Amino acid sequence: MTETVDRKISVSAAPDHASPLSPPLSKPSQSLEALKDISFGSIAGIIGKTIEYPFDTVKVRLQSQSSSLPLRYAGPLDCFRQSLRADGLASLYRGVSAPLLGAAIETSSLFFSYRVAQNALQATLYSSHKDAVLPLSALVACGAASGAFTSLLLTPIELVKCQMQVPVSADSARGASPAAVIAAVYRHRGLAGFWHGQLGTLIRETGGSAAWFGSYEAVSALFRRYDQRPPRSTLPNEASALPPLPLGQQMLAGAAAGVSYNFVFYPADTIKSRMQTEDVAERGGGVRGTFWSTGRALWRQQGVKGLYRGCGITVARAAPSSAFIFAVYEGLRSWFP
Predict the structure, then answer these.
(1) pTM given for the model
(2) Which residues touch 158 (CB under 8 Å, ≥6 apart)?
(3) What does the pLDDT average to over 213-227?
(4) Using CA atoms, how far apart are residues 113 and 134, in angstroms rounded to an integer?
(5) CA nearest to 111, candidates 209, 10, 203, 198
(6) CA 271 to chain centroid
(7) Please, is 241 exposed, middle or buried when counting C-beta atoms within 10 Å of its C-beta (0-12, 13-18, 19+)?
(8) Lesser CB count within 10 Å: N end or C end of the chain?
(9) What is the CA radius of gyration of the chain?
(10) Rounded-to-integer distance, Cα 206 and Cα 148, Å
């Protein structure tokens, strides 16, 4: 979609759907492509996070409500109202510094590792001929690999973010400062404490990223087939490239990706948020629960509804956020080939 590439990717048997996220594989351009992935992905991630952050704050507050006490918020709208009444709009952006950094790291890591995973498949399983075709299943696997790698970078940032978003007291929407959260985690749990909830992040990112990239590639391919756009040339030095999709189609594909990412593995995110905020919400200290024990307890107490608490608002904010992320990333690659 954005640059000339030397491979074609198909969703079905037809090999005429080039991946819109597949930059050149020529060795001289590897460093440049990595720099583009990191730079453009960071910018796109920051823009997307700025759009979605107030909704994410509401989601975390809904997810982290104590199971042993009456629910503080009746739903997303009630959480918005209470937060705005207590501390204004600033309370919904509390702790945004860590998520902005996390969004830059997450999105750049996803795009970078997604390309690396595709390169690895091109060099191994699909090395039998020059113009290897990556089917959708291979792209989904590449997305899963990129999510698994990114989860290692993301868990510490999300732990700090979640603890900052949860109110310190019942009569305030204020959370702890980044320095206070970091100091408390290190003091009580050591360095390993920053990876508390890693399994939940791994499940969410691995499955979610597979759905994210897979949905984007599939919807983009459907649009190209519908528009009957010509395939991108596979000649290494060919200047002509696949015409980009219209902005509206790019954003629709991105929105579909965002919905898929957040809905499919949402329970894992709920369990992760509960684990990472239990000290703030419960104020009880003691031994932390594991991913499975936290999940079982939540299931016994609230059932499916508890596992999907806040899912509606999460999916609603994910669609525009993901649409902007892909549109900005693709746009930057088109403007700076």
Answers:
(1) 0.72
(2) 102, 197, 201, 272, 276
(3) 90
(4) 16
(5) 209
(6) 16
(7) middle
(8) C
(9) 21
(10) 5
